[in-house]
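Support reply, case 0932

Customer input (verbatim):
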Amino acid sequence: MLYDFYVCGSVMISDLNSPSNLWPEVFYFDQNSYNRFSIGCGVKEYNTFFEEVFLPWLENDPMSEENKLLLSDSVLSIDDYLILAKLLKWAETDISQTNEITTKTTTGSKKNQFIRSKVLNHTRILKVYNYLMSLVPKYLQTHDPTVISLIFNDNQILNCYSKHLGYKNDLIPFTSLFNITKLIHEKKRVREWKILPISFINLMEFVMRIITDTYFPGNDPNDSIPARKVLTREDVQDDFTQRTDIILPTKLTAEFVRGVIHIVMADDMEKAQDPNVEKLIFWLCLLTFQNLTESDIQSLKDDYISLLPFIFKYNKTRKLATLYELEKQLDRSQKGQTNLYYLRKYYGNALIEKESYKIYKEWTKKSISKPGPMFSVLGLLNCLEDSPKIELNIQDIYEVLVEGFKISNLELQNQISHTLSMLIDRYGQFNSTHHNKIYEMMVVEKYIFTKPFNPKQMETYQLFVSLMTSKPKFALEKIENTISIVGNGNFTTFLNQILMHPDIDREIRKSKNYKTIHHLLVNHSKSSPENNIYLLEYLMAHEDKQSLVSMASFLTTCINSNKQSVTRDAHFYDTLLKYYQLISNNQQHFDIFEKTVRSFTKNLESDISLNLEMIYPYIRTKKEVTYLMNQIKELLKEPSKYIRLCKYFLDFGDYTQLITKNLEEKVRVEHIKPSVNQIMEIMIGLKNYINIDALIGQNLISIATKGLTHHNYYYYRYQRRSEQLKIFINLISGILDIETYYIQWFNELIKLDSERQFKLTENSQWSIFNSIHTKLFGLYHSDGLKPINYKTPFDQPIEPIHQYITSHFIQSYNLTLSKLSFEQLKMVYIWFKPLQTLPSSETTNKILEQFKLLKDQIKRLLLKFIKQEEIKPLDFLFDSKLTGFSFNLDIQEQDFSSSTPQVQNLLVQKVLRYLYQDERVSKQEYLEMALTSKVFFNETCKIFKNIPVRFDNAVSRFKISKWSFFQGSLYHLKYSQLSRFHYDDMENVFLQLSSLNLDTNNFLYLVKQEMKNLKSLTVKFNGYGNKINFLSLLNLLQFSPNLEYIDLNLSKIYDKPWKEITQVINELSNLPNLEQVKIRYTVDKSKSPAKTTEFLPILKRLEEIEKAANIDNNGRKLIIKPYIEHPNIYLQYNNKNLMVPTDLEDGHSYCYGLIIHLYLQKLNFISPFPKLQKLKILSEYNDVNILTTLFENSSVQSQVTSLYLKVSYFTSTYYEIDTKILSLTKLRKLTCPIYTHPYDTELNELFKIANSHPTLKFIKLIDKFSLISRDKSKYNIDMTNISTGDFISEYQSPLFIRYK
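Our regenerated output:
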């Protein structure tokens, strides 16, 4: 019967035409949320219901789609991948795949497509990324607008493919996407072909990601190639024809480019500009032709001609920030002209102009009254400003622009102003009718100059200048009116422009009213200091020197004032410096220079129109140079600017002493600041122009220490130490007498290290020296081997440097493990590499003497290191007669070709297996090896079948074929990793596994055939009472006859279905090959003692199974390993709701592994643990008595072989951890997580205790600090200052082994 309380909206299920037996005892529903709460039937019943009842009902029942979807949400709120694979196979059927976009599908077929796609979207299974690999492409090929809208209804597609998978053409062919956009464009006026706006936006975002990854490969997280920077127009605007970084590794195809063009053409010409479309146009026009063949370029001619209207629409006029830029850059090419560069080159200028003019005539045949179309016209005109057609039709164009100026839109007004100014200045012929209309609109109708000055209207103000200068007589007639219009505040700068135009100046000078006009302008300039400066250029052209001098005291008051409204652009400073030069005599008016330079430096970084080079020509004397240097030295954040300044004045005169002194002051002050990296770059830039060797040499230690430790602006620029090293090495390269300075540095380090600790922590001075020394001389293979007689980067012999450093270090330090760690020894040994011979017999004897004192395992490791790094001067240590130690590293090579095929295959597999398990070997390298030959390929497939696959965090996806490494199945998978496989392959992969981890909340799949390969099973359900998980597990066990190992994790705290769990436990007795069972349980402190003891019957039953199996099974030994965890009891739970805590004392007799949190625990550690072998302490407790009680337990002392303990326990003597560790008489392995940094003290204490323990064999360190730290440079545990004694780790492994 149906559950009457399940409601769809306000309608009961019984009213929804459902089969009467649709939901019997299948689901329990939450009455409040109307969602499935749990499944209340067996696994066989559920699978039958799903396949034979639910899917047919979903497709065939006449119930409304809305109600079906509501019910489906209940059924499908699961994440069982194998069940969902069935759903996807169902969804894939009846998809009408058409190659022609015009083909129609039947109504029934469309409906089925809609239901299937709606269910998939509605149930949010798109999180299972690889289910999409076939399904979505097939849906897209239906060209059904409803389905397409649904697919791109939200960003799930974009997130799945772009963010996690990257774009691969075999997943969603690009042709499908551009066909859809083309169809949307063609059908946009057809009612049935309306795509939801949000769907189109998401489609475009997805397309943009695909195109971006094609033009700039390497941004896909799964790609192994380096990422390429996504170039902007500003990056390539000026040199796109010369740049090599535009060239792609492989050519683009004509089909792909045609697709991108059609995507652009899906844009609506009447709508606002879309930034993504603008990007595509930029890429199509500037970054594409270089990556096409000549024949492909010609085949795309019609497509690119069709693109012209969109190029024009997206051709914005250049937005100029200041008047100075406006003046200087007015005649520079616009975006559209650049966009047309390759179109003109390959398709001919005549064709482009002909087609463009056709478009212009089409657009302007009717009066334009809206901003959108007018913007497009402007874009077209700016593209064709040099065209003869512009000049031939200039009056018609002026008419269009003048009419467009009437449209009320500020941005449009600016762009029309820009275009009109450009055309008037270039072609003139602006007739009186047009002139008067614009003048009236600007001055009278729009009140442009009666409103406050607005920097965003610079183009409009500039149009007024062009208007006046195009009619000099008109301008002269209106001079008084013009002064009143543009003679106030910042507008005065435009009055000055008008006056200084050659035609206007000529007209004024020859006018009979010259004196009157001039007197009017002089009086106006006296109205304020700002006006005086704004008109200063005019005054210098018309006034005598005496008059100009008399203005000095008046105008200087506003040069460096705090008035924010004053326009202080490049023209402002340029005019003032010209004025200073004109009136100064023996630097009488130096205050003008001072104030101008001070104001200039104050605005230098905030105003992009300003640059230092513009004031260089006005600086002539030493006093001026000195003042400028003092003003700008604190402001130059970029070393390149300071270097250019110094180089200029070095060329101008002999300012070496001044620059050196200034640089010395910067080094003295800045070496204690983070900006020391800037100092290094400045010195690098200047050392070839002035001799600063002594300055560099004398400050080596301070520059190195600060330059390689500070994390500042330059830390982000040079994120890695290697980049900082390059700067320092570049600095000291080529220094004369480097030997003296380098040895001084080395001696200073020895002097500072009075205790001879040779500390190599991350930022210690020895660490910095070693980093520089090994990198500078290329000592490691990773830095590239250099010849022994290598002399660069110094043009002098370097042998004396290495002779001195090695001999003095050997005399000063004791090279034994009692004094230095194994890592420290390796670092010292590498210093000998560049030597041709050892410094002296005394050095040789000292090395030999100390080598003999080392333990044999350390000797072996050091000799391997010497061989690996080719440290020739230390080869004498291989002489057993000298060392008394014999160790042969020579490997006898076998003739591979003489082996039988079986031996060859075995050797190949062994080599590949070894390399595959080495995490340092990249996936790309492994792939290349595996594809070397058929033998290598087949042996690789065997490896995947016999060892676990290393899946990284990136989401990979697999389709199994005859050329797949997984064709022979895999060894191990987590259940969640099935989502990486195509749903057609998922079930087969699952059934062939040898090892399985059921890491899921829902395991509903019904196994129907034997899983013969399955030997290892790990189970961790978070089922929250869902019995079907354990019933499904029971079914799985019944089909797994060869299972040898099972790990059942019940540690998650939730109400467990003990009846079903007991059934699973009983089934273990029927597994004939079972060798080991691990079962994990967490005591729930919030439950009553009766509830927490529900686990005891499970332990008792397992013990029975163990005894029975070991008696009956012919010597086969079954081991049961129960792990019991006692979790934290947090303070907030210490209230009346907390049950009386129990420590599950009865369970101690079964406990193999004990996991405890000592925080606020009241546990009984007195009773024995007869089977205890593993102890894990997860947190600290400030009551040392509890810890003491635990370690005094006789079971712990006599049985524990493995201990997990935080490194922080070794901090002090408070815990007396040494005696506690030493009391564990059978301890073999110690695992220590590190949560804090630094940790040198704790680790040294740990290894001190470990070396005293008689049975301890292994120590494993776990870097937990890196997981919680934002500082990604500390991922590896630094052992350089840790004395590990007998415990040795090769290749910086976190596992340390004691060799005896």
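We compared this against your earlier run and they match. Two observations from our side: The first strand starts at residue 7 and ends at 8. The longest helix spans residues 197-215. Please reopen the case if you see a mismatch on your end.
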